[in-house]
Each structure stands twice: as C-alpha cells, then as structure tokens.
Amino acid sequence: MINILRREVIYFWYYFSIQLEQIFGYWVLGMLIGSFVSVFIKDHIHNLFRSLGSKKSGAFGTIIASALGIASPLCMYGTIPIAASFSKSGMADDWLASFMMSSILLNPQLIIYSAALGRTALIVRIATCFLGGIAAGVLIRIFYRGRSFLNFDGFEEPKSRDTDPNLFLRFLKNLLRNVKATALYFLLGIVLSALFQRYVPKEAMTALFGGNEAFGVFMAATMGVPLYMCGGGTIPLLQTWLYDGMSMGSVVSFMLTGPATKITNLGALKIVLGIKRFLLYLLFVMLFSFVAGIIVNIIV
Q1: Torsion of CA 25, 27, 32, 38, to 10 degrees
Q2: 3-class SS of residue 156
Q3: Among 17, 233, 265, 289, which residue has the fewest nearby CB atoms (within 10 Å)?
C-alpha cells in the first residue's frame, strides 16, 4: 500500500512539475504586465473611452468600446462603477455593453496567460472576445434603441488603491495584490491538470470534446459555467485538454462561458441588468459561445 502511494506521489509530482515549468513564466509575466497596465495605463484607457462618448460614431463605437474593454485591466466589480460614471456622462448603452462584455471576457493579464496555449488559441481567444463585445453592443443597439438596458443607480466610481506617491511602490503594491488574488487559483489549476493527466484517459477527452462535433462544443460551453475559477487557474487545465484531444472550438466555448458566468461577475451583472435582461445575457453568452466554437472548428 505504501509503495502504491509512493508511486502515485511520484507520478503526480512528475506531471505537476512539468506543468509548472511550462506555465509559471506566463503567469509571472501576466501579473507584471497586468499590474503595469493597472497602475500606469488604466486611467488613460478610461479617459480615452470617456472622451469618445461625445463623438457621434454610431454602431462603429461598439468596435472601439470592445477593444478598450479588452485593454482595461479591471474585474467586473471594478468595471461596473467605471461604466456607471461613463453612463452619467451620456455614454450610450450599446457602447457600454460592448465595453463591459469584452472586459468580462478578456484583459491584458489573461492575454499573456493564454499565450501558453499556443499562437492559434491566443489569436482565436482575442478575436472571439473582441467579437463578443461587438455583438453585445450591436444587439442592444438593434433591440433596445431608445430604451434603457443598463441601470447603474447607486453605483459610484471607486477610489483607486494605486495612490502611493512613489511609482515603484505603487506598482509593487499592485503586484502583491495581484499575486494574492491569483496564486492559489494558479496552483489549484496545475494540481487539477496533473490529476487529469494521470487519471483521465486521453481517449475520453477526445471522444467527448474532440473533432468537429457540435455536442463537444456544447459540453465545453456548459462545463465552463461550473469549472471556471480564474483566468490563471484554467490555463493549465486547457493546456492539458488540448494535448489530450480537445478541439479548438471546444476550448473557445469554455473560455467564453467561463469568465462570462463566473459567480462574482454574475452577481454584479444581476444588479445592473435586473432579472429579465440578466436571463437575456445568459442566453446570449451560451448561444454566442456555442456558435463561436462551431465556427472555430470549421475554420481551424
């Protein structure tokens, strides 16, 4: 019995150490870039978006808004108060929806993490998240023209915690908060990845998520709802699943539904949307992730 346990520990450590070696550098680089953007560039991004509100760009504004949402490093609880201030300054709901949707799906730090999955996965993730933000804004522009979709009553713009007069200390404090917020999920993701590699046959992953089958994409989109932890925590899992035969379309569906239905994001969005529009949001997320996954499988 002891020999069996010892053997399993050795196998586990083997998979764990390989995964850690492959992912660790991306995690560190992602935190460094994420903190840099948050401390030195975030306000410029938000001020640029605010200044665009006075311009009459029409539906084209959703493209700009989606791009700036991806560039913003804030989580959803940080994005909503910022979006509330944009709304008070007269920003249209379709622009705000594009900004918020893409901000939920992707940020600079998560872009770096996703590079560990390979160039194709990185490009596809950026493209689908960008298009997801645009689609959200366009749909609101079409179906809610002249009507309010977002309700920001009671939200005030938060005070920044990056206030230390020493720029290096300001960056360092943000980086330490970043490490504290992501380290546990990052390690948990590697542990789960090692367990999958050891105990889940590759054939099972290929049968369930491989090929171009719509069922595999649908299952991946559904799994993204309960299994998504944080961006850094899911990358090791996705890397393992890709190696084991998961199709790129299934990976995309998981990467879309995961952050979009993360419990903290849903709690914040339900306050802003109300129950009816919240259900529409969930329907949009599931349909868009499914269609995106099918299209990616056809193309890639």
Answers
A1: 160
A2: coil
A3: 17
